[in-house]
Amino acid sequence: MILWRQRVSEKVETGTGRPERYGPVAIILHWVIALLLIFMIGLGLYMDHIPVSDPTPLHQLHKSVGIVTMLLIVVRIIWRLTHRAPALPKDMPTAQRVVAGGMEGLLYLFQIFLPVTGWLMVSAMAMPIVLFGLVSWPLIPLPQSVMDSGYLAEIMPDVHNWLAWSFGGFIALHVLAALHHRFIRKDQVVDRILPHHGSRH
């Protein structure tokens, strides 16, 4: 049913060969991942004062949700690469189009690198990952020399934290841009990804 609705949505074009808005699969993935990322950032900030070397149930929850989020991001990227995105407003300046495309690319890169660095971090520390206490998730295999040196285990928490803070900043810019389109430009950019689309007055 969802796939059928996706095809119907993609048949409604703007004259550029692109759909007017994202289909239901893309919309669901966008908002589910957004909620998971907000949860992960909040949980990460709360855990910031807890040493990674002193694992708690919160660490295991953080790792579990992180792995699930990473898998959903992979699905989202594959879906995005195989389905055309809606066209941007025709009156949007070229510079803003370039910035929008660059921002989209950066957000995808952060969504990939952030969970991967977390996975690499716990792998370097040889810390087990048990998804929600039920299913063991494999660690990234690393050379024994890397494990013995301990250098990767030492730097990865800082790398992961730096990426998380940077990602949070880009998310804030993304939200500000959405608010700008919604309330200042008053165009249809935000409507393309909203779960419920109605007429604008």
Automatic annotation (TrEMBL):
This protein's UniProt keywords: Cell membrane, Electron transport, Heme, Iron, Membrane, Metal-binding, Transmembrane, Transmembrane helix, Transport
The primary site where this protein sits is membrane
Q: Where is this protein found?
A: Cell membrane
Which co-factor is required? heme b
Question: What membrane topology does this protein have?
Answer: Multi-pass membrane protein
Instruction: Give one Pfam family, short name only.
Output: Ni_hydr_CYTB
Under InterPro entries, the record lists: Cyt_b561_bac/Ni-Hgenase (IPR011577), Cytochrome_b561_oxidase (IPR052168), Di-haem_cyt_TM (IPR016174)
Describe the location of the Cytochrome b561 bacterial/Ni-hydrogenase domain by residue ranges.
21-195
Q: Which domain of life is it from?
A: Bacteria
TM ranges are 21-45, 65-82, 106-139, 159-179
* PANTHER family the record matches: CYTOCHROME B561, CYTOCHROME B561 HOMOLOG 2
Homology family: Belongs to the cytochrome b561 family.
Name of the protein described by the UniProt record: Cytochrome b
